[in-house]
Specification:
Residues 67-139 form the UBR-type domain. This is Putative E3 ubiquitin-protein ligase UBR7. E3 ubiquitin-protein ligase which is a component of the N-end rule pathway. Recognizes and binds to proteins bearing specific N-terminal residues that are destabilizing according to the N-end rule, leading to their ubiquitination and subsequent degradation. The protein is 39% helix and 10% strand. It contains 15 helices and ten strands. It has helices at 27-33, 43-61, 99-104, 206-211, 214-222, 233-236, 246-251, 261-269, 275-288, 291-296, 321-329, 342-356, 360-366, 370-397, 403-423; strands at residues 2-4, 76-84, 97-98, 110-120, 175-177, 184-186, 202-204, 237-239, 301-303, 307-309. The strands form four sheets. The protein has a four-stranded mixed sheet. Helix 2 packs across helix 12 (342-356).
Length: 429
Amino acid sequence: MEKEAPAGAASSSGQGEEGDARPKESAADEGEERGGEEPVVSLAEVLAESEQLEQEARAVLGGSDHERCSYSQGAVKRQALYACSTCTPRGEEPAGICLACSYECHGTHKLFELYTKRNFRCDCGNSKFKNLQCKLLPEKATVNPTNKYNDNFFGLYCVCKRPYPDPDDEVPDEMIQCIVCEDWFHGRHLGEIPPDSGDFHEMVCQACMDRCPFLWAYAPKLAVPTVTKVTPAAEDGVILNVEETEEVKKENGGSPQMKTEEEKVAQNNEPSTSSVSECSQSIKNEASTCTLQELQVKQYLKKNTATFWPHNWRSKLCTCKECLKMYSDLEVPFLMEECDTVLAYENKGTNDQEADRRDPLMDTLSSMNRVQQVELICEYNDLKTELKDYLRRFADEGTVVKREDIQQFFEEFQSRKRRRTDRMQYYCS
């Protein structure tokens, strides 16, 4: 089964996952620099790399079930998804399948790995698949009307609509996912040089910033600063004209007849004489609690670029009634949910997998009586000690451990064990 995706691309979580655009020097490269010597990789390095890959797999796939189709769960908040190029090639309707269906129903097909998508219901076997029925859940609706699709479902990414990895692109570059549209973008196509890897948690692409212009008011206070190109101001962005408040005018040398803050508070505390003034006062108090309105009275720069946001920036967005309605109208209510972030999904997957992982030795011990447990522990310790001593010889001599060496060790270990067992004498009382 072939799966293609922004593999190794940056995710939108917050642990340095945005990736490093610079290619890392491999052991083979080091060997070439030493005059063509055969590269040497230690066993510890192999195990460390294996553990890292396993952790990444648990993070990406851990929140998804590899045995049961996710269709019965409805539109899953976030899950690992795939698109089948064999069943739904370019020119057909886009469709997405869950992790379990990628194994069971499309195991020999060419798949595009989509990383994760939010609020998606598995399409496998519905009307978009002409000659395939889902083996896990055959009875499905013909379509999933709430699903959202983009060019990723055909293996195309970024504004350049190119595959990843791109065989015609020789420029090494990281891929970063927009947390609004969930498309993937080359770092060089974001209109801004991304901050250093790990400095930001999430990215919003230029198109989504245009669709959600309220984010520009938050950007000066919350967004991670970037390195900008030296261009004329007119080309770099547009300073939005905003209505000045009395406080702003006062700071800029406004009329001396302006009321001070203490006078305003005193006036606000005076008893009202009419229901109209009470209503007006209520509106003023409610408006003053809107964080977005407070930011919008200040000048801010709207640029034709993507923006980069730090960890927990979503918690600082306004949650007043008007803003919540605006999020709903713009179809971005998920910005209010911390569990929507890819980091939260990855952490959940890792924690769930760690909780499910069981030590086979402990499972075996729990099924034995006391005498059997002692014997097994002794055998285990003997094996560990002898294997450690055996491998130390190779380390001291600087030689490579081969498969036949390991095979020889276990054959000799079993032979020694049989000899010890044969010499034992049993007495009956």
